[in-house]
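re the bet — no i am not wrong, look at it urself. input seq straight from the record:
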Amino acid sequence: MERKVEVAIIGAGTAGLNAMGQAKRAGKDFVLINGGELGTTCARVGCMPSKALIQVAHDLHRREVFGREGIEGGDTLSVSLPDTLEHVRDMRDILVDRILGHTTDQMGDEFIDGYARFIEPGVLQVGEDTIRAASVVIACGTRPAVPPAWVDFGERILTSDTIFEQEDLPDAIAVVGLGVIGLEIGQALAHLGVSVTGIDMLDTIAGLRDPDACRSAIELMERAFPIWLGHEVELFEDEGRIRVSAGEQAVVVDKVLAAMGRQSNLDWLAIENAGIELDARGVPVFDRNTMRCGDRRVFIAGDISGSDQILHEAADEGRIAGYNAAHTESVAFARKTPLAITFTSPNICTVGASLADLDPDTTAIGEMRLGPVGRALVMGANRGIVRLYADQISGVLLGATLVAERGENLAHLLAWCISENMTALQMLRKPFYHPTMEEALQGALRDLLSMVELAPELLDAPAELEVLR
């Protein structure tokens, strides 16, 4: 059957659903095409099930400070891993059902279940159906990357798509790839009693590009499990288990979690038939502010774009792509301040510009280590660091890296301030309540201010207090 529509959206994840919302708002005739499971990557296998697991792990791990707080019996606490995993799946299912109940469950002919592929520009094949669309939004997402050589190990190789489906957890696991997924799941498993070894080919973790913050993060993550960095990883059979080798180090484990990033689903799409320019990686060349691919009425959004694989970015890209797909003229939209959070304990956060991308000759750096922060000390979490970057002359905040408990909240404050082009001095003139974790920001801002030029009349006055004239 052949069908003509104004907008065809490929993928019913976060980006695709937001694109669909824009098409509906514009009153356009559209179809939403999705192959595979529904419910968004975040709800099914990403953000939400991982956070449910992390919460259980954090609650159990908290017992380690009970003794010094005078709370007895903490050493008798234990965890039933099958029950924990069932709880994680229950939380996952609630969230997935909520998404489906508000989206695809309400759709009729506008939803097509199947995998789409381009057969020519603007024309898609989905099973027996041919869809001719005036505009196409590509939002078909990504899947976990697993080296081909590892496939022979079968179910002993886990990914973020499969780990939450396990009925129990192994005694020993190697986590290969220490980005967000590897660190979050690795630390959670370690806190739940699994023997974890973390490995990465790079010399950094969590994608950190600030050497001081990276050292702090590694030191704190190694309190949960050993970390091996800077070596290629090889797997070998070892009497039914897996020997994982990295450089001169090796460990024998029951399973391996492949957390080396995600690969594009573009290879399922016959993207070469879409009539758009592709870069060296085979990813469509597009305008980040319009999400449009060249001059074609093709738009891209979400993880598939190869940009930040973060839910709020995917949602924004879906809205941008959907709006422009539904309107004749493409509108360029401003993008939000970069914000990334790794939900380990402590949180690892990056905000705004990366230190590696700033000019060292014109950038001031302010720092606060959490040792003397009263609130952190009371919580038993006074390890970590806050690093702020600003223009050396104006004092305008440019970026930050945090390794801190409750860093998720501090990072949001900093992202909002960066979005408003605030200076370190303007931020210091806001109230900081005592005792709170926000005082760590205050300390870093004071350090930063000492390196920024001030107006002569303020040099002898308390800079944090505004002078009334």
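see?? The radius of gyration is 25 Å. told u. also The mean pLDDT is 93. so pay up
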